[in-house]
Specification:
The protein is of the alpha/beta class and about 290 residues long. About 35% of the residues lie in helices and about 25% in strands. It has helices at about 70-80, 120-130, 135-150, 165-175, 195-210, 220-230, 260-285, and strands at about 5, 15, 25, 30-40, 45-55, 60-65, 85-90, 95, 105, 180-185, 215-220, 230-235, 240-245. The structure holds adenosine-5'-triphosphate and magnesium ion.
């Protein structure tokens, strides 16, 4: 099974037992074990994910690439505890994830700001929930992240007065501000123009290097995946499972200049080829 140790005996203390009695060794970080997802719709059952198994190491940066509809957001939502697998299990530090929690931050694919809160209060929201900081500490943290995402001066604005890209930057600041152990990013820079996108990619790299955390990022941008990630997981078209896992052995710290190196081009070529194969399958199935 891709990316997984399947063990035969129950001797291990930290293991998961599936409903067929198979034992799986658990690790620190995120363990995705034989996860499937089906949705009931009025047109019948949709199989979004075939069994997916993957161990995401503690403080690892993983990017997920795949054709539209292959189940990337579904997988991310299950890691975040926003949805449950139909079969299989998602674990964090050897404990099953049942619901959203403070140690996992998520930036959703669509903007999910609270429309009745201004930028400052949107970013402060998670921090206030944590009840770990004084109001003055919260203000300092909010200022730091507002500045980091380039929204200084917009603190009093409400989401309806912000562009799509600005809203997404508030969502990113909100997720970063609580300093979660796991950060889940669903196409976080999709709505940004090229220049802002590149600035945000470097910003994310800097934040991650300064305060290492496990990051799982869904993107359609192959260069973005290679620039940022330790591993790129390429999924098959729906029902999604893992097609290939690519170790990105590029030196860190990285910046955009790395895109011109021969090594980078090789990774790009490989990822493009894999995505192209899956896109072709989609087209053939549709015709
Ligand atoms: N709540 C739901 N009810 C029914 N079907 C769903 C639901 N959520 C997702 N699906 C279906 O599951 C499949 C996977 O959806 P998902 O949103 O995870 O894809 P994705 O890989 O994130 O696509 P994209 O790249 O377009 O964002 C799709 O066929 C989608 O229509
Ligand atoms: Mg999606």
């Amino acid at each position: 099974m891709a990316g997984y140790d399947h063990i035969d005996s129950p001797k291990e203390v930290d293991y998961y037992v599936d409903d067929k009695g198979n034992y799986y060794k658990l690790h620190n970080g995120v363990d995705i074990i034989n996860v499937t997802k089906q949705f009931e719709t009025k047109d019948g059952m949709v199989q979004a994910l075939n069994p997916v198994s993957l161990h995401i190491r503690d403080k690892e940066f993983v990017a997920i690439l795949g054709t539209s509809g292959c189940g990337k957001s579904t997988l991310l939502r299950m890691i975040g505890g926003f949805d449950q697998p139909t079969t299989g299990s998602v674990m964090f530090h050897k404990k099953e994830i049942h619901r959203p929690s403070a140690y996992i931050g998520m930036v959703f694919q669509s903007y999910t700001l609270f429309p009745w809160l201004n930028v400052h209060d949107n970013i402060a929201f998670g921090l206030r929930q944590l009840k770990k900081h004084t109001p003055s500490e919260i203000n300092d943290i909010v200022h730091e992240y507002t500045e980091l995402v380039g929204l200084k001066g917009f603190e009093k604005k409400y989401p309806k007065n912000l562009s799509g890209g600005m809203k997404q930057r508030v969502a990113i600041a909100r997720a970063l501000a609580t300093d979660p152990s796991v950060l889940l990013l669903d196409e976080p820079f999709g709505a940004l123009d090229m220049q802002t996108r590149e600035v945000m990619q470097e910003l994310l790299l800097n934040v991650w290097q300064r305060s290492p955390k496990t990051i799982v990022m869904v993107t359609h941008d192959i260069d973005e995946a290679i620039l940022l990630a330790d591993r790129v997981v390429v999924m098959t078209s729906r029902p999604g499972n893992i097609k290939e896992i690519i170790d990105v052995n590029l030196e860190r710290p990285r910046n955009w200049k790395i895109r011109n190196t021969e090594e980078f081009l090789k990774y790009r070529e490989r990822c493009s080829e894999l995505i192209r194969q899956e896109s072709m399958k989609l087209i053939q199935t549709a015709s």
